[in-house]
Amino acid sequence: MVKAYGVWHKVGLDAWNIARPAVFLIDRSGAIRYSFIADRQTEFPTSAEIDDALRTLPESPELP
User: What is the pTM of this model?
Assistant: First the structure.
């Protein structure tokens, strides 16, 4: 999965064969609506950035 989502980090200054920190918001149809992929192992989106991205997602019906 890390290769499929483009977050696999083969070689870097801080790590080898590791996933980069990443966040994906995926809607019910499977479309990626927001993505954050870090360049370094110490980077993460803020909770405000994730909240803002969540607010932009279209409303969807509840699952049964």
Answer: 0.69
